[in-house]
Amino acid sequence: MSPAEISAQDVKALRERTGAGMMDCKKALSEAGGDIERAIEILRVKQGKKVQDLGERVATEGTVQAYVHAGAKVGVLIEVDCNTDFVATNEDFVRFARDVAMQIAATPTVSYVSREDVPADRRDAEARIHELQAADKPENIREKIVSGKLDSWLSSIVLLEQEMHNPKFEGKTVQRLRDELTATTGENVVIRRFTRFAVGQ
Length: 201
Known about the structure:
About 50% of the residues lie in helices and about 15% in strands.
């Protein structure tokens, strides 16, 4: 099964069960012919202790954190969930939620947690714009141009793909920090939702 045939829903389900990255999940599902259980085995073999099957454990505990930028012109509310109240009050877990809230405050383009959350109509509209812009390019490279521009646009609006601005994170993405926290806590860490407020917007 080619990666293009893997549904976004299956990728999301596998990510929630393992905490692995989106591309790793897509490759594992492709290799497993779309079989989620087999894909989990593939991920565990390739990534070892970093990946575990979190099963159907629902992230029903968690924390809501707020960040208000100096000058009180921008503020963020974020909900990050996990499996147990023990982890929900864990210092690293709460700090992760606060750090991500600060990242959102500093990144006005971010609107969605993951690519799967971007509505199909928004994605299609953006693709149409890039198709029109690439209309004068040779036909054989048009698709590649549109795909590249769409990918760049998605990475600018999706939270998990953002590189953390704070230099202490050494360019890690939000997804990478989430994966690391999932690995250290052994729980299903889910950024459930966020809202960014800005005066006048």
